[in-house]
């Protein structure tokens, strides 16, 4: 039977996480609609042996080293025959019936290239989760935020964002995309390695003329921080570096220089805050991010003609100066 959806879980050293989450994925995913596939990214913790012995019915794709989130998914998706692919983090537990609303929406909206469910916290199920909440946006300077999450502040889920919405980016924690579009758009950029590569992909999907949607009729529960905690300097480094690359490669010539100049000013402020807190590791991570960005940008020579960044809001000013910590409070 040719199922229309591939649910692809990229695993790296997840032998302690997969036994908790994979059974929930299998139990709550309609086997008539989707194949659940685990792509192992060169694990060395016994993950593969565990999967073969405990989940023999689950298809397994073996990659022979850790290619990172981006290239790992590219390799796993390269030959999939499915019409749709769902990129699902290994620490996500879908709610029962999660896949049907996503499938119905994509089938009914051919103009939509990708979508995401509502993402709730696994530990606090009444809270929206940091990595995507109810759909992602960018401000005029390229800072990401979500319906239900601005910077570190997440909202309680009271159904306030239960309407389907057009968004700028869908979370890589649970991202459904047309498989052929994923390939045509170039997949996830492997130079990102991890963090913000899904925003970059969604930006290219939108530049291709497709919409991206949040479909909160579907919901999943995300543990979050399963790979790197928020305070980890490596995560700081990847977020700062990749955000600069994100802007550089996706903005047209007339906009790029000004936006990057403004971002450098804000990043200098962030560096100063780390220094005031004597958090030298994260301060150095910001400096390293900028050094490596200057080298990385040489890899990008083709730029779009269209600027998709919105004119507002400036999320830094609204959050820190005006005290607007909820999506519903933002001036848009």
Report on this model:
With 332 residues, the protein is α/β, with parallel strands linked by helices. It is built from ten helices and 13 strands. The strands form three sheets. Strands 1, 2, 3, 4, 5, 6, 11, 12 and 13 form a nine-stranded mixed beta sheet that branches. β7 and β8 (144-146) form a beta hairpin. α7 (233-250) packs antiparallel against α8 (253-276). The mean pLDDT is 95.
Summarize the structure in short.
The protein has ten helices and 13 strands. With 332 residues, it is of the alpha/beta class. The longest helix is centred in the last third of the chain and has 24 residues.
Q: Which helices and strands occur, and which strands form pairs?
A:
Blueprint: E1 5-11, H1 18-28, E2 34-41, H2 47-54, E3 59-63, H3 68-77, E4 84-88, E5 92-94, H4 99-108, E6 112-121, E7 136-138, E8 144-146, E9 149-150, E10 153-154, E11 165-166, E12 174-178, H5 179-184, H6 197-207, E13 211-222, H7 233-250, H8 253-276, H9 280-296, H10 315-321
Parallel strand pairs: 1-2, 1-4, 2-3, 6-13
Antiparallel strand pairs: 4-12, 5-13, 6-12, 7-8, 9-10, 11-13
Helix pairs in contact: 7-8, 7-9, 8-9
User: How confident overall, as mean pLDDT?
Assistant: 95
Sheet with the most strands, sense and barrel status: 9 strands, mixed
Total beta-strand segments: 13
Strand content: 15-25%
Distance between the termini: 46 Å
Radius of gyration: 19 Å
The level of helicity is 25-40%
Main structural class = alpha/beta
Assign an overall shape: globular
Order of helices and strands: EHEHEHEEHEEEEEEEHHEHHHH
What is the count of DSSP helices, taking H or I runs of 4+ residues? 10
Which segments are poorly predicted (pLDDT under 50) over 5 or more consecutive residues? none
């Amino acid at each position: 039977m040719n199922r229309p959806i591939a649910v692809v879980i990229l695993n790296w050293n997840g032998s302690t996480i997969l036994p908790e989450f994979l059974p929930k994925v299998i139990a709550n995913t309609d086997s008539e609609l989707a194949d659940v596939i685990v792509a192992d990214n060169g694990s060395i913790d016994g993950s593969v042996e565990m999967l073969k012995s405990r989940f023999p019915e689950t298809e397994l794709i073996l990659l022979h080293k850790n290619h990172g989130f981006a290239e790992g998914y590219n390799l796993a998706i390269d030959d999939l025959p499915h019409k749709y692919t769902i990129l699902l983090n290994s620490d996500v537990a879908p709610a029962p019936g999660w896949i049907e609303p996503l499938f119905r929406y994509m089938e009914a909206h051919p103009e939509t290239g990708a979508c995401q469910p509502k993402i709730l916290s696994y530990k606090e199920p009444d809270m929206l989760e940091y990595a995507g909440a109810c759909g992602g946006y960018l401000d005029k300077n390229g800072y990401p935020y979500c319906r239900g999450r601005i910077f570190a502040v997440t909202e309680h889920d009271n159904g306030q964002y239960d309407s389907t919405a057009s968004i700028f980016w869908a979370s890589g924690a649970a991202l459904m995309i047309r498989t052929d579009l994923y390939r045509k758009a170039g997949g996830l950029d492997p130079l990102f390695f991890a963090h913000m590569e899904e925003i970059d992909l969604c930006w290219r999907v939108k530049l291709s003329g497709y919409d991206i949607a949040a479909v909160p009729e579907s919901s999943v529960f995300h543990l979050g921080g399963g790979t790197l905690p928020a305070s980890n300097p490596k995560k700081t480094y990847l977020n700062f570096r990749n955000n600069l690359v994100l802007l550089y490669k996706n903005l047209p010539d007339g906009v790029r220089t000004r936006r990057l100049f403004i971002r450098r000013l804000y990043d200098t402020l962030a560096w100063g805050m780390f220094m005031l807190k004597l958090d030298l590791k994260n301060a150095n991570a910001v400096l390293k991010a900028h050094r490596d960005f200057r080298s990385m940008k040489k890899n990008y020579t083709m730029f779009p003609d269209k600027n998709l960044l919105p004119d507002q809001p400036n999320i830094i000013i609204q959050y820190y100066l005006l005290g607007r910590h909820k999506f519903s409070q933002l001036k848009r």
